[in-house]
């Protein structure tokens, strides 16, 4: 495990280099509770107002994540691909496919994360816009839309076209529930 952080707010410098290597059966892998060879590399260079970084994660030599990270004066962006490997099975694995593209853009002020998110999988497309109050464990008017991309996602005996789910998440996480609308253009 190696980490280098050069953070000088007064000098307007922020550089980061993290290299986590946890071979199967090793000390770090045991602490993490994994039975795989794992490597995570996080690199970033820039200033407190303009920072560019990247994160790459591998498990047993196969990619888990390849992400670009950006900060532009407090507007943060994460984009790239995530591979679920064997962490998901069944419908969830089919919905996301072998790799899933993600894009997150937002701000973090006073413990409130506000912005938008997009996820593009083989079988579904998800878009969200709104906020999460991390200090009060609550959603803040977060609109979520899930669109079915693969009309045969639920199996060869059921074809659905133009399936869309929409909901708004607003309120505390504890005991949370939200109404949603479901529309289907055609089902065979």
Short description:
With 188 residues, the protein is mainly β. The protein is 7% helix and 61% strand.
How is the topology of this model organized?
Elements lengths: L1 E7 L4 E10 L4 H6 L5 E9 L3 E10 L2 E11 L2 E9 L6 H7 L2 E11 L2 E9 L3 E10 L4 E11 L11 E2 L2 E9 L7 E4 L2 E2 L1
Antiparallel strand pairs: 1-2, 2-3, 3-4, 4-5, 5-6, 6-7, 7-8, 8-9, 9-10, 10-12, 11-14, 12-13
Task: Describe it.
By secondary structure, the chain is mainly β. Helices cover 7% and strands 61% of the residues. It contains two helices and 14 strands, in the order ββαββββαββββββββ. The longest helix is centred in the middle third of the chain and has 7 residues, at 90-96. The radius of gyration is 20 Å and the shape is globular.
